[in-house]
Amino acid sequence: MRASLLQIAVDPDETVDSRRRRAASLVREQAGSELVVLPELWPVGAFAYQQFEQEAETPTGPTFEAMAEAAKDAGVWLHAGSVVEKADDGVLYNTALVISPTGELAAVYRKIHRFGFDKGEAVMMGAGEDLVTVPLPGTLTIGLATCYDLRFPELFRGLVDAGAQALVIPAGWPARRREHWTLLARARAVENQAYVLACGTAGTHAGVEQAGHSIVVDPWGEVLAEAGPGEEVLTVDLDPAKVTTTRDVFPALKDRRLGLPAPATPRP
C-alpha cells in the first residue's frame, strides 16, 4: 500500500480558495498512491482562531467538493485533513473528512481532544464523541485522530480494539514542541503495534511556527520516513502484513489488564 502525506504550508497571504486549488492539484499528482493525507485545518490554519467562524463550512461544503473531485481524478482514498465544521445547531467542530476514490464522503471524525486549555479551540469548538475507523478495501483499516489527540493513548487503544491497523493523524503542531510530536508518534505505533501516519503543516499559522516533520512509523516503531520543516510530499510503501506479523511475534496486546478489556477475538 502506497501512502502520500502532503505537508503543505498555510500562507496568510494565500486565499482559502487558492489553497484549496493548490491542495487539489497536489492530490491529483499522487495518482499512484492508495491513500493520500492532508494536515489539520489547512484551509484556514490551526491557530487562526479569529477566522474559524468566517471560514466554517459543512462536511460537504467547498473543501469537500474540491477534494472529492481531486480524489476521484487521482483514484485515491483521501484523508482530506480537517475543516472548521459548523453544525446545524451553530456549534463549531474540528472535523476530519475521508473521501473514497469515487469521490464519496466515506467518514467524518470530530476531534475529541481540543487544544487550548481555557482559550482558542478548547472554548470555541465542541468535542467529538465517536471513535472512527475506515476499512480501505484490500489494504488496511485506518483509525482517525487529530493533532492534540496524539497525547491521549486511551483513544488509540479504542481505535485498535475497533480494528485499526494504521493510525492517521493530521495536525497543525507547533515547532516549539516538535520533539513531542515525533516521540508521541513513535510511542503510539509501538504500544498499538500499528502504522502511524502523522501529517503536519509547514509555515506559520497566525504567528505560530509549525513543526512540519510529518512522519510515518511502522508497527515496530521504526521511522520509515520523516519530512523536514518546509513544504514536502512524503511517499511511503506500507506492508499490511507487517501489522499481523508484529502482533503475532510480540503479542503484547493480549496481556492488557487495566482499562478497556482486550478484544474477545484476535483482530486481523
TrEMBL record:
Record-linked Pfam families: CN_hydrolase (PF00795)
CDD domains in the record: nitrilase_5
One Gene Ontology term of the molecular function aspect: hydrolase activity
Limits of the CN hydrolase domain: 1-240
Keywords, ordered alphabetically: Hydrolase
Keyword Hydrolase on entry: yes
Similarity section: Belongs to the carbon-nitrogen hydrolase superfamily. NIT1/NIT2 family.
Protein name, UniProt field: Hydrolase
Naturally occurring in which organism (per UniProt): Streptomyces pristinaespiralis (strain ATCC 25486 / DSM 40338 / CBS 914.69 / JCM 4507 / KCC S-0507 / NBRC 13074 / NRRL 2958 / 5647)
